[in-house]
Amino acid sequence: MAHLASKPTGIPELLGGPTGHFPIEADIVGYLANTASVPALLGIFAAGCVVIVGLTHLLVKYHDPSLSSADKWAIAWFILSELKFLWGPLSWCVALMVTSQHPLRYPFQALISTGQIYGDVLYYATSMFDHYYKGIAYCRPEAYYFWGYYFFLNFIWIVIPSYFLYDSFVSTARAFQAQERESKRQQVNGSVKKSA
């Protein structure tokens, strides 16, 4: 994989062609060059995330101050997940379900988390396929772009949903265990009443 982020062969490849994007051959209709610096863009992105998470935290604290920190972070994650196109409406629903401690939170949380993991794995797989079999790279050739953007920023969408998928499985298993214990307790109490 290291050669994915290997040396560029010339200045046009280093700059990413006329648009600055990869693959170089990409024809982007209506392309307007970015005028902001990378630190400015990262600052705007970070500020936007802080505002979204901060407002979410304040609203959740107002609605239900007794929610655990883990639930507050879950709500913030699913609100931020709304920014990913396909899962937006369901992410909002899960955030509301976490806030209201709705029992359907866990199946929907598992569904969205599975979809996020699937989407990221599919993204990695198609990018690798295009790179190795078609010779098309979708990432700039510098190593920090490959490891920083392509690998790390996308890997977040595997790690965090994996935690919530695990949380959903554990919580669902606990619910079924509690239901089974209650059923056995009622059977024992019912048989005691019948024999009395």
Helical amount: over 70%
Annotation, overall tally of beta strands? 0
The low-confidence runs, each spanning 5 or more residues with pLDDT under 50, are 1-16
Radius of gyration: 24 Å
Strand content: under 5%
Task: Tally the helices.
Answer: 6
SSE-based structural type: mainly alpha
Describe the structure.
The protein is mostly helical. It contains 6 helices and no strands. Helix 3 runs antiparallel to helix 4 (88-99) and helix 4 (88-99) runs antiparallel to helix 5 (105-134). It is elongated, with a radius of gyration of 24 Å. The relative contact order is 0.09.
What's the SSE blueprint?
Layout: H1 11-15, H2 38-63, H3 69-81, H4 88-99, H5 105-134, H6 143-195
Helix pairs in contact: 2-3, 3-4, 4-5, 5-6
Salient structural properties:
single chain; 196 residues; mainly alpha; 6 helices; disordered N terminus
In short:
It contains 6 helices and no strands.
